[in-house]
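Protein Record: Sequence and Backbone Structure Tokens
======================================================
Tokens: labelled as protein backbone structure tokens, with as many entries as the chain has residues.
Task: work out the structure tokens from the sequence, keeping to the layout shown below.
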Amino acid sequence: MSVLSHQLRRIAAQDLRFRAFACVGTEDGVAEDLADQVLLGVKDLFDVAGLPTALGTVAVPARKATETASAVAALQRWGAVVVGKTVTSEFAYYGANMTRNPWNLAYSPGGSSTGSAAAVAAGEVQLAIGTQTNGSVIRPASFCGVVGVKPSYGAIPVDGVFPFAPSFDTVGSFARSVRLAGVAADVMAEGRLGYRDIAEQAAPAVRGARLGLVRTGDWSMVSEPMQDLFASTADLLDGWGAKCEEMVTALCGEEALALHKTISEFEGYRSLLRLGMQRLDLLGDKVAEFIQEAALVGAGEYESALARRGALLAQLDAQLAGLDALVTVPAAGEAPLAGDNGDPRFCTRWTLAGIPAVCLPAGFGPTGLPMGIQLVGSRGADAALLRLAAGVEEVLGFAPNYDRLDAELGVRAP
């Protein structure tokens, strides 16, 4: 049996528990079978030649893709092998699905890049990719205890990826280290992030880093354990010599959430209409509700929201100019029970802004589930943010927990 065939059998067997994959199998035409290839899971919004694209729904027939999305093709040229399509929420919206959190199967892995985060946490693959239109990379990374990288908006091409809200849709990556997730993101961006060539360099010391500590206007919705983790992480970074200061940004209020909702509803509704769905009765409750609400958003309201967003982002860019990163929470707390993908609001503001973000696993909550910390950088400063994130990753020291998880699951990571 070839190395790749063995890996596929391993993934298929492990996934009976986690259900992170919509399908397991390689794309057509895999010519090499090298032991050191990076195994890649691809969110089922991306086209991969030879594999079905189902968009996480039964309301639209799955189709076998004939071409491969540019982001995936770039990773293939780099040496990654697609081993399957990972589960997504329906059309990458809110709805929960069959995937379970590897740290505790009774809990949700988050969404909508559900299977991608879970597959990496479970050790099924070293690398997975997803998309973020609201909080769909950063939030599941936090729930699943892995690194999630959402680059600056527009850095990675989105051709061959189902568009939901083109003003926000961003390709992101998941891995168990900043280095792998960051390099993969830069590979997909064809070097535009500027990280791949410097990833091997020592991470910059946290000492002297200028960090803005952000508690948003809805901080009361953050669980006490997550608030404690945020405070202890700030203390830890301060102890390592970072220069931390409390900040209130132009996006901290509810207005940013409302603007994102208006823009994403206007664009998302039209994206779904273009699919020409005939069986609306097959839609999940979340998407059906979305269609009803989004149909009411008019062009004038949409244009006003875009204009207001531009004004707020100019203020935010000025605030970020003197900082290396913002530090905030990626989610309200630990993962909720299965059937609930959680609230994306603690990612929404930074997605609205189109600025880069990294989620780092930072600790555990009272139920033993992982929780993360979110670093947010200046627009286009992806390489600097990733290098800083690698330094913070070292300080947090989460990596040994993967050995414990693998042992508990009885799996051998690739």
User: Anything to note?
Assistant: The CA atoms of residues 63 and 273 lie 18 Å apart. The mean pLDDT is 95. The chain has twelve helices and 13 strands. The radius of gyration is 20 Å.
